[in-house]
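Q: I'm writing up a methods section and want to include an example of the input and output format. Could you take the sequence below and give the corresponding predicted structure tokens, formatted cleanly so I can copy it straight into the document?
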Amino acid sequence: MKTEDKIAKGDTYITTQHSFFGMAANAMPVEVVDDPSITAWTDGIKRVYGRQFVDSLTLKQTVGLTIHEVLHPFLQHIKRLARQFEACSHTANSAADYEINNYVTLYNRTATIPIVLPPQALVDLEEHGTEAAEVIFKKIYKKKDGGGGGGGGKEPCDKPDKGTGQGGGQGNKPSNKKPDKDGKGGGSQQGEQPQGPSSPGEFRPPKEKSKLQEVARKWTEILTSSIQVAKLRGKGGGKFMEALEKILEPPLDIESLLEPYISEFCVAAEDPTRMDKRMVGYYDLCVRGIEGERHGTIVYVKDTSGSMDRETLESVMGVVQTISDRLNPDRIIVIDVDAKVQHVEEFTPGEDIPIEAKGRGGTDFRPAFDFIEDNLEEARVIIYATDGYGPFPEEEPDTPTLWLSWGKDEDAYPFGQVVNIKQLIAQARK
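A: Here is the clean output for your methods example:
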């Protein structure tokens, strides 16, 4: 079968069997190239296929490749990951592929007609689950740098081989590897190696950067229409559909939202006329941070009670990293606590702090402050992430405390500085 005919037949199959993606597939013209290094790519404007790669696929694998490509602009990877793509295109595409393929794999578990991804598709639910591509990018990028977070002046990005459409490695070559019999595996469960193969099918930003916003708007409209039609027909995709719906209300950069508050702390701390007891610790850390010298200990307390879900804890990680980058401590002490202290661990700046929570019981703020008073006299600032539901200590601690609240308002906290993250998000979305 001619390559162009196979792609067209696949598009017809999508319209009839995976109708949710029909509108999206028809929104982009198709181009077939004779470059054996290319599998497929899209910039949100067109779909480009490598003839040799498509010829190596079954019809259902071709359908899976097209759906994969459609999901790149559906999930706004072209706009969301523009900065990451510029830093390391190969890693950005790997991260995007994990996000897509993991969701497809979850969708396939309950789908009447599973989506068959092409060979070598990157899937790793154990490592990445339903993490956002931005989070996955950071994890892969750090691994390639040996976990150092960019130290030593070494470029952790694996440069693509010249002329490859996929970002390096032998993974762009057609493979004879078969997918799982039922198609529900969605590809190999391999993790990405520093110089390993890429997943077939990539995204690229438009050559004209001015078109980036235009492409994003176009695909927001297509996604909105596709979701509306799917709901009218009574067809949904569980977590897969939830992931797509989130794109219509994209996650905010919480770190950026918090930056004015961190700046306020530092400015206030540097001005003796504005400094009070609560600012003493901030003064020490802020000034030393500006000077570039690592100094002091940040104590990060995670409320690991059942009311703090994983999504919230993931958001907290970014906030803590932002504060750490600004204040430049020499170490971070992480305490997991619900109604009692469950776990204590020390980290150095740049290390990954685990999201997993130990505890998941009730909430009591007193054990954490008691532990800090008894064991961490050197603590310069306490960052406490919580929804604010629980008993507080009767006395204010000597250590300045910053509450990252995902629930109660400022008035509910008897001491410390309070930043209501949920309110920040709501205000930013108005």
